[in-house]
Design a protein that fits this description.
Blueprint lengths: L2 H6 L5 E5 L4 H12 L3 E6 L2 H13 L4 E5 L5 H15 L4 E4 L14 H29 L2 E6 L12 H21 L4 E8 L8 H4 L2 H9 L13 H8 L10 E4 L7
Parallel strand pairs: 1-2, 1-4, 2-3, 4-5, 5-6, 6-7
Helix pairs in contact: 2-9, 4-5, 5-6
The chain binds NADP nicotinamide-adenine-dinucleotide phosphate.
Amino acid sequence: MGYLEGLFSLEGRNALVTGGSSGIGKAIARALARAGASVVVVARREAELKAAVDELTEAGCRAAWVSGDLATRAGVRTVAEEAAGVFGEPDILVNSAGINIRPPLSELTDEDWDRTMAVNLEAPFLLGQRFGPRMAERGYGRIIHVTSQQAHRAFVQSGAYGVSKGGLESLARSQAEAWSPYGVTVNTLVPGFVMTPLNERLSSDPVKVAALAERTMVGRNGLAGDFEGAAVFLSSPASAYVTGQALFVDGGLSVH
Ligand SMILES: NC(=O)c1ccc[n+]([C@@H]2O[C@H](COP(=O)([O-])OP(=O)(O)OC[C@H]3O[C@@H](n4cnc5c(N)ncnc54)[C@H](OP(=O)(O)O)[C@@H]3O)[C@@H](O)[C@H]2O)c1
């Protein structure tokens, strides 16, 4: 086996990527598949899922999709079983599915709060409970959560979203503490402002887009593809001694 292959190859590994039909999750699913993993992507809309998987299979990768709603506990459990039934138990779990409802805090309803927590925090917790201990039993696992700047500081209506992402960073540390001794590392990827459908409203305002780019050090906003290398690293044998960490993929936004 070549040097780079030994460090980074995901050959023979199974991956489950939530939110793998769009934006950052889609780019991560593509990266893991191209690095050799068999990838199952999970989201609700079937047309988007199918399109994402078709792209991968046409490129010669092993990929499949499972449609389900991560906003309910029953939905998460069903999706988890279906996904594990495709290629086998995942060795790599990426939680990229997320929502950002963004009402001003004074107008945030109980339903907004519950839904945000369910998709952004509870689904990653439940998927971790389902897959983490089994990864630990097998002696290899990688869990990657996608959080946000708002896990670290409040801005642009952090509301419930920032709270859910702050919780997700803590969840990563709890999971890392529990399972790292058994070969399961758990880390978070922290985006800056990335041009994806999640940010449609903001991305369509060129003045705001330019102002946000200005706040980075690299001088541009993020693209979904910027997450590919970091995701492969955190999924691979190369990151065996990196756990409980938050890796900012943000062009320097957080330190500017
Ligand atoms: N874009 C940014 O600037 C940015 C910044 C910081 C953090 N993030 C985080 O990065 C992650 C990915 O965001 P993105 O920008 O790539 O967003 P995106 O393009 O809107 O993708 C979100 C994905 O999550 C899925 N999803 C949403 N609700 C779901 C549900 N109830 N059940 C199952 N799947 C669901 C969506 O598919 P369906 O709608 O078909 O279900 C889609 O695949 C999110 O966790 C987000 O909070 C993004």
